[in-house]
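User: Hi! I'm a student and our assignment asks us to look at how structure tokens line up with a sequence. Could you show me two examples?

Assistant: Happy to help. In each example below, the sequence comes first and the structure tokens follow. Example one:
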Amino acid sequence: MRDVEVIESAEAAAAALDPVRARLLGELAVPASAAGLAARVGIARQKVNYHLKALEAHGLVELSEERRHGGITERVLQASAARSLDLNRCPRIARNLARRPAGAADLAAQPASR
């Protein structure tokens, strides 16, 4: 798990900012399956799984391990980073990162915001 995830796409930011998904991301600092997470947060497993698939599609959660129980495979996921940062909502931070050598290469393709 990385310390910080930089969210550059509006779709990924929207997924991370959804209240249910934000709560699930916070809970996934500790790896969990959809069933385990559902029990922790008190939401139906099917609904948790729906939200986890959306988060995974945007790279905000990642597969930690797969556990086999008979003919069933349990997928254990974790947040891809401890914290997420939406550069579209923080242009000052984006400019400051772009000035640093380590961040310059990552942000070179982004248009400068004023």
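Example two works the same way, sequence first and then tokens:
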Amino acid sequence: MAHEQLVAIRTFMNSIEAELARSALEAAGIDCMVLTDDAGGQEPPLQMTGGVQILVRAENAPDAEAVLGAGLQDAADHEER
């Protein structure tokens, strides 16, 4: 069985933003995971040094980018109103 290659498609400044992106991707049917090095949640300030990444399968990366990009466009449209 071949291992799936995971790629980081976005890096966020904190886990809250990353979890919102994860929710959007999962709602679109794209499996993903959040990767952070914050000592298991004991040192949240460490998130600011390396960020919090969203990982998806390499073959899902274009679709995941489209989902997250659409969310950014929706937010920009809302702010213009």
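Here is something you could point out in your write-up. The chain has a mean pLDDT of 79.
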